[in-house]
Each structure stands twice: as C-alpha cells, then as structure tokens.
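Session log. Operator J.P. requested a structure for one protein chain; no other inputs attached. Running the standard single-chain path with token output.
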Amino acid sequence: REAAYQALARDPDYAPAHDRLGWLALYEDSDLAAAAAHYARAIELEPDDDVIRSNAALVALALGRMDDAIALLEDGAIRDPVSAVSHANLANAYLLARKYADAERSMRNALTLSPQYAAGHFRLARILLAQGDLAAASAALDAEPLEAGRLLGRAFLGNATGALADADAAIAELEA
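Structure written below.
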C-alpha cells in the first residue's frame, strides 16, 4: 500500500499503483467506492491493460454491475483467447448473471485450454447444477483434480438433491 502511494506521489498517472490500491480497497478494506474509483482511473490511464481490466471486472461484479463486468471479461477473452483464466472468470460472471448457457460454454472453453484447471470442473459442476443437470454436475465433480473442489461440489450437490447426510459428510471431510 505504501509503495503504491509513493509511486502516485512521484507519478499521479501511474496506472499500476491505482490497480494495486483498488485491489487493496476491495479485498482488504471492503471499500467498494474507493476500489471503483481507483479502477476507473487505472482504466482511464491504461485502457488496454488486461490485468487492470480483469480486476476492474471483479469490482463491477462486487457492485452488481453484471453487464459492465461481462463486457470487460468478454473483451479479455477476445484479447487473449488461449487464457483459461480469462474464460473461467467470464464463466463466473455469466453464472452470477444467470446466463447459464454462456457460463457453461465459457467454462468448457477454459477446460479445453487447461483440462486440469484447478477448481475448473467444480466451477462447471456449479453451472450444471444451476441448470438442474445433476448427473452432469456429478460427472464434472468426478473429473475435478482438486480435492477441496470435489468435496465442496459434493456438498453443493448433496444439498441440491436433498442428500443432506452426504453434504454434511463432504463438509466434515473438507474441514478435516
């Protein structure tokens, strides 16, 4: 934080410092207004910086500005079509906006690019679960390489199907 303020004291138009302060405002201070202001300034200064745009999308999601977040993330996926992270972040935004078909397509793109993407199959399972496809969600969880993702997904699936004992067992194993 101090380094970012020092950088801005030297150059008030240094976009990476606004990016860092926006990140800190969002995740350390829970100050959405400050985060939004820093990211607006950072994008104004560096409109083509994909990291800044992606981080700004997270602030937009936190503010409930789904269309703004999706526009930033779609642009990022177009700019870097081989980035599994870009497609996964876009899938998450679509999921939050209840655009499930778009979310599934984006997450499958991410998994095509990186089949062992940590928590990628868990994310796909969440999308499939939101669409009511319990069998496909279960199959996606079977493919999840991250144990925590499999267990958390099993808890979600157990809750959705009414198998609360299974959900509780998955949570207990996750906690252990």
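Operator note: The mean pLDDT is 95.
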